[in-house]
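Incident log, structure service

09:12 report received: a user says their structure output differs between two submissions of the same chain.
09:20 pulled the input from the user's history:
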Amino acid sequence: MQAKPFHIVPAGFHSPVKLLQLHQSSLLPMKLPRAISISNPADNHVSVPLTVPDKDDSITAFWDYQFLFVSQRLETAEPITLHVVDGAIPPDFPSGTYYLAGPGLFNDDHGSTVHPLDGHGYLRAFSIDGVAREVKFMARYVKTEAQVEEHDPVTDTWQFTHRGPFSVLKGGKKLGNVKVMKNVANTSVLRWGGRLLCLWEGGDPYEIESETLDTIGSFNVINDHDWLPEAEKKGTADLLDVAARLLKPVLHGVFKMPPKRLLSHYKLDAQRNRLLTISCNAEDMLLPRSNFTFYEFDSDFKLLQKQEFNIPDHLMIHDWAFSDAHYILFGNRIKLDVIGSMTAVCGLSPMISALSVNPSKSTSPIYLLPRFPSDKSVGHRDWRVPVEAPSRKWLLHVGNAFEVKDVHGNSEIQIQACACSYQWFNFQKLFGYNWQSGKLDPSSMNVKQGENELLPHLVQISINLDSDGNCQECCMENLNQWNKPSDFPIINPDFSGNKNAYIYTSTSSGTRQTLPHFPFDMVVKLNLSGKTSNTWSAGARRFIGEPIFVPKGTEEDDGYILVVEYAVSIQRCYLVILDPKRIGETDALVARLEVPKHLNFPLGFHGFWANSN
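09:34 re-ran on a clean worker, output below:
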């Protein structure tokens, strides 16, 4: 089924070229900083009023969005104690560290800007001492190979030489620049087996010293574990294998792509105390098939098992799920863009323009891959044949998945995730970045009211299987009927892979006329059994990132929520502590701690809570 043409109408924003004509000079400087290219927030502060007339909200909204992606060049060599501005750190708060990964730099000193996804990794660490009731803050750049090459520590200047998948250099080499795989280690962070790792979507993670945040070096998680014989690889050989063998030396030798790309999203099986990771083959970007390899490690980083699956579909996976018996892949279908490929290879467009979404089918494929080959309870269904969910969605992030069996061997799999429409998702417009101008346009993230289903929102997929593993029914619906744009769903990590009663996510209040959907400004707690929803709001002109749950007891909502609040109007960041049991009440806020203004940092991506013990 071919998708019908669809036109998205963005929210109204004044062009930044026209801003000076529309706004008083007393409110904004005569020389406006470039979007996402402010070198140092301490030196380039732009004062924007806390309130402006409604007719000018588009101007304020535009700049609020830009300030969410302000470069931060400063690092902290020593921990800094944060000042508590609201509430108090509770005495029963578990001692540990909240690590937050994300980009820190978006512009160099030679005229180039990069997409937020290509920004150099800037690791933030909030160390919380529950006994002393204080929080110490550190932030350091991950010294990746690209970062070391592009940064001169003597002059403290930057010059981008790597293109990255989403960017085109203005001041660097274009034609013939094969430095595409710019591993910036900016997407997620993990502490496991005594190692602290910063991960990226297309290469080895970088190991970090947990006390000083010094970079130790790249850590080869997967490519040293190719000891499984070919017989255990799930799939068949064909002509595509020949094409793959021809592509591998080109991608690796010319473009320096690793044979297998570790994905940035991992899973923790709390019941088995295992780390689960996934990789894909480099050549899969260009071939109409997908190879995924799953790895399971014990708490000492010893590899316990590895399985490879060859799926006859061209897919792009960012996040995934697992249950007690399955690895679960929600297939985002893609296709090769021939014209985009040619312009990308010539350096005239980002490398990601070689790919585009493939909305040719009206359903969404869900692959249920057997986690344990010897487990006969999963039935005999052919895992190569996906379960087709009756709605075409592009999956972004997974909150949780679990599987429940009855006495007859029938099972129900539930997946709680964030998904959006194929019509809205565009590789070249993520975060509203325009690679041609090097600027951010908030309108692409904020379509008009009534089109919420296009944007990222929470969904629940239910799959009923009989005792032989055959699908009897599959349905998809809004989770708890919550239809506001949302993303970054999380749960109490102790319940990962098991049935959960609560899920938390970042969402939008919708109160801002010109930024109605993104950035997010609320945390919502969904009670899945009671079908209720309760929210906490950061307030006017304050945004939030991904929340993190910190467990402290046996009850599922016994703990605390950590989330960073970005007060863009005053260019400040705050660490916020919430009581999950009180979300929806006026006293949900437990504490708010202020990051020093000169260390104000841009929007983070994904975080990790590590207990001190």
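09:41 both user submissions now match this output. Likely a transient worker issue. Closing.
09:42 reviewer note: The two ends are 54 Å apart (CA to CA). The longest strand covers residues 394-405.
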